[in-house]
Every structure is written in structure tokens, then in C-alpha cells.
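[Automated response] Your request has been received and processed.

Submitted sequence:
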Amino acid sequence: MRKIFFILSMALAFTGLLKSKVNAQSVPVGTPALDDYYRRMQLLGKVDSNVSFTIRPLFPGAAFKKHNAFDPDTTLKNDNWTPAGPVSFGNGAGSFQILPFSWQQQFNSDHPYGWNDGAMIPAKGYQTMVSGGIFVKYGPLSIQFRPEFVYAANPPFNGFASGRSDQDLLAYYHFYNNIDNPERFGTKAYSKAFLGQSSIRLTFDPVSIGLSNENLWWGPGIRNSLILGNNAPGFKHFTINTVRPINTPIGSFEFQVIAAHLDATNFPPLLTTATSTGTNLVRAKNNDWRYYTGVNINYHIKWVEGLTLGLTRTFDAYHKDINTLSEYVPFFFPYQKQSTNDGDPIPRDQLTSLYARWLFTKAQAEVYFEYGLNDNSYNFRDFIGSPDHSRAYIFGVRKMLPFGGDPDQHILLSGEITQLSQSVDRLVRTAGGWYVHGGVRQGQTNEGQIIGAGTGSGGNLQSMDVSWVSGLKKLGIRLERYEHNVDFSSVAFPDINGNSRKWVDFAFALQGEWNYKNLIFNATLEEVKSLNYEWVLKDYNSSQYYIPHNTVYNLHAVIGATYRF
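Generated structure:
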């Protein structure tokens, strides 16, 4: 730990050379209405086009010169029940603000569904989360205290173990013993308090350094992110990051470097932990906390308007295995296994991705792509011969269309594809599931939830969204097809033709966000049709993928309200 403090002190010395002028207040990842508002405004050419939206949370005070990050369209300034926004003190050197109070609720009628909900857990039934707090800034120092509290009724539901054979249970545990991703979080109601979106920072424009527990989002995706998103609770981390693009003669740059602490649960993959003959299915995991570190850097090319190129790289290891400075800061560790005697000297899970986002402000549109690898190639020849080995990717497009002749009203068209299952290269050599690791057997998780894409290891998603938008208001529909863990099912449930049993969800959602004075309301009403739910065996045959009486229906509902002070 002394090495970490040395690195911190050196970073503080560097940032001390810079000037402090900006507000380090952030808009948490996933904040209803507000988080996506700024990205929509960028499509319309109303905010700085150099901001990539690939390193979040956003800092609107620095990036967009907003006095009140929670009143981006200034409607609250002119129409409110109570005055809102930061209050200055100390002759302008300091500011104080009561952060928005948020109450989010969700309900699943039959089984867990949904993701990108932070500290909430996968659960059937009713669940709620409340958050709020304060922000204080004086000079370069800022303190954001915004804890979260979650309660979930967590009743029982028909999960994977219902009516399963010992062979099925063994197959399930063979995969899920290598990740901390329980199907159900215990047998009782769940409640827990978190530090939430809290941080302590020193900000010297354009760089901020500090300690944080905020959710992070890396990459250009909207529905999913390969590396980091808000699917799991925020985790404790040290961060050095830009709060706005750094402008240079060749273009602008943004970056974030983190060193983090990931926690595990004590829950088994399933509540059923033994076969019918009493054989224990659970393999005990190392209970040491994990040291997670990563870097995200991007470049906005000066000569190609709107184009941002980026790179992420992360490392996940048990803290007890980290001993040297190069292991605390491993970003220059070779990619090619040939350069490292066929592997990592310590048990460590590595992920990397390349991404691009191209913004077309004249067309009011964007295209984005992220391509990631979870298993390094042996050498460059190996990569050229099989570039899709261990790959995952996200591809998306967005377009704003004028509506009704009103310059403040538009139709937003969005589409995104997430592909996490292995390519056909798995027939030659398997790459293992994304987020799953045999050496670090909690995988890429925090508090039992995957820190990347909420669709999970081996999960594939096709999503389409059509919405009417006006300022902070949004009303629309969403259609999705979600294919659950193909990497597991293709091994556990193959048939004689080489196909596998599919569990596919088709979801149709009505969704909306609406602001009125100090309030912002958000709601989603989603009907989910699950075909071959939990890869059921009953009456399955290789000539018919989906057996009608194996279909399960689930109502997923979300409603929330946020009050801005």
C-alpha cells in the first residue's frame, strides 16, 4: 500500500501545477433524463462536440460550462417550487448544493429481469432504492456525499434448479463456479446501504484526482458497455481523470486511470448446492478482496470532424498476489503471451477494447463501435490468423429527426447490438466466457453483479428505441431480443445436430421521462416473453427450438421520481 500512496503523492504534485477553476460536480451514470440529455443535445449541436461521452460520469460544469448540472435547460431556474442550484460562499471560492433526492422502484412479476440499475439486485418482486446528499466545494477541493439504500423483497421464483437432473446441475456449476454471479441473493428480503455516488476530489482544470465510489461507464455504448457500466453497485476507487477534453494542436484527449477495490458475496451460484446423492457442487473461492485497475484513453482527431478513437485496458487480481509496483500499475504488461512465457506471472484477468464514436452534427446522428478481447493472442501471427478469438463487440447508431415543425421537438431513433457469445472460432479453441475466469474466480464482478454489460457472459442483445424527445422530456417504445448465455448453453445442452437449446427473451417496453418544476419522473412498463426459460428440458427436441408450453411471461415495471434542490 505504500507504493500506492507514493503514486498518489506524485499525482498530486503533478496536478498541483495546474489551475483550479472548475466545478467537479458529476451527474451520476444512469441519472434519469439528465444523463442522456447532454448526449442528445450534442447530436443537435448545442454542446461541445469534442466531449466523447465514453468516460462517465460527466462533469457538466467543466465540460459544458453549466452552473447547475441538474438544470441543463434552465427551466428549473425560471419555474420552481424551491430555489435550486449551488450557493456560493467564501467570496466565490466555495459552493454548496443539496443534491437531488431520488426514489427509484421496480417490480418483476415472475423472475429477475433488467440491468444498468446500479446497487439494485436481480430479483423477483418489489425493489426500491433511495439516494440523496450534498456537494461542497472550496477551491480545488470538492466533497460529494451521495449514499444509496436498497431494499428488495426477494421472494422465491422458479430458477435453474427447478426439476433439474444432477447432470444439468454439474454443468451449471462447472461454468458459474468461476464467477460471483448468484441467481438469487439469499432466501430472505435484501437490504443494504452503499456509499453510492460519493467522492472526494482535487480538481485542477482539466484534470481531477481523488477517491470515489461512483459508478463508471467506459465506452460509447448506451444500452451496454463491454468493460465498465452501472450494472453493479459503484466500487471504491482512486481516480485520475479529465473533467473536459484536453485541447492540443493535433486534437483533444480524455482519459481516466483507476485503482479499485472489488468485493464479493457469500452467495452460491444457486440455492441448490448439492446433487441428489449429496455431492457438494460449490467450489470454495478465495475470499481475498480484488485489486482492479484500468485505463481508458481517447483521442478526438482534429482533421476528422466528430471522430473519437479510444482504448481501454483493465486488470483484475486478488490483492494478496499484488506485490510489485509493476503489478499495481500493469498497463505496459505485454499483450502477446509469447512475450510473457505463455502467460501472466500471477493469476490475473485482463480485458481490453478498442472503440470509436463518430458524431455527425449536421445530420444530427452518431455511429459507435466497441471491440473487446478477453484472451490475449500468443503472438501477432496468432491474432492475424484468428482476430475474432475471444472477441465481443457493441455496435450502435442514433439519429434525431425534426418533428412537428418545432425546433425543440424531435424523434430519436436508436439501435444497438451487443454480442458477447464466442465466435465460431470456439470450434477450434475455446476462449471461455466473457467476465468469467478460472484464476480469479469471482470474475469481473462487484457485489455479485457484472461490472460490464448487464446481459452477462455469453449474452447477446439486439435493441431498438423510437422516442419523442423535447428537452428533458422523452416518451417512446423499446423492442429487444435478448439471448441468454450462449457460451454456457452450447456446451451444457448441445443436440445431435450441433445446435443448442436457446433461452431467448423478447421484450416490448413503453418508457418515459418527464420534468415538472423541481421534479423529474421516469417510468418503464415492459412485457417480457421468455422462450425456453432457463433452457428447459421438458419435451425438447432438436427439430423445434422453442416449445410453446415452455414459454414464461414476466412484467418488468420501473417508476421513479427525482426532486432537484
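Summary generated for your ticket: Residues 2-563 form a domain with the Porin fold (CATH 2.40.160.130). The longest strand covers residues 94-108.
If you did not submit this request, please reply to this message.
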